[in-house]
Amino acid sequence: MKKLKEMSSDKLYRFFIYFCLSVFALSILVPIGWSIMSAFKHKSEFYGNPWALPEGLYFENFIKAFRDAHMGEYFINSLIITGLALIILLVVAIPAAYVLSRFTFKSSKFLNGLFATGLFINVNYIVVPIFLLVLDGEKVVRQIFSIAANASVFLDSRIVVSLIYASTALPFTIYLLTSYLKSLPKAYEEAAYIDGASYLKTLIHVIIPMAKPSIITVILFNFLAFWNEYIIALTLLPNKSKTLPLGLINLMQVQKTATDYGAMYAGLVIVMIPTIILYMLVQKKLTEGMTVGGIKE
């Protein structure tokens, strides 16, 4: 009887888990599928059954999004800013995490605590101080190099936005990489030292290959954050070099007025596609980076 009760409770628990996972998956897949389906509809089809399949593949919506709303230009800007921010972030965070996780020195505990504290600072709360710092820096540069007052130095700069993205993501990235690197044994590392490898060579040829799952996890999380970021881009890119989230908001405002919902959903799909493709490519490494540590046999 006890075994039967245990089996029934185990089945009930599994059913509950699978039911919750199915509901959660549907809550994600249904809006995504509906948005993709709507992107191929003619605007006249939205006045009928909203759940009906599109009568044909109306690619004119994507042409309108790229041509009229400049989504192609915004896509390139987002790609440049996100890619540059990820490069800067990894170049700084990987060596920093390596030092904090593998070496002990006087201020190591303080630095670890400092980066852990940075996890509790939401970037949306410090946008105004960042904006004021950028303005002050722009004034100083104009005075030193005698630049015209109407010329923009730091505002509307993709490089500056990339630097701010990378710097605001440093606490999370260093904390995650440090935690993973601490779990790696020092056997391979010590063998490299015996063979005469420097710290830099050991980092490049030993530590980074072993930490690849964690690095891919960091890349994915930060790519999603940078790609979808809105507040900093809105503040520091007021005139040109807009990113996709800003372009999407403009497109939604224009197309709502024109009641052309097909083009609006086409713009939404343009924003979603890169993140979906990236997640599909790295999902195995993502799971491995979040759960696995130590030497692989």
From TrEMBL:
Keywords: Cell membrane, Membrane, Transmembrane, Transmembrane helix, Transport
The keyword Magnesium appears for this protein: no
GO annotation (BP), single: transmembrane transport
Domain ABC transmembrane type-1, residue spans: 75-282
GO cellular component: plasma membrane
Ranges annotated as spanning the membrane: 12-37, 74-98, 110-135, 159-178, 262-282
Protein name: ABC transmembrane type-1 domain-containing protein
Organism: Clostridium thermobutyricum
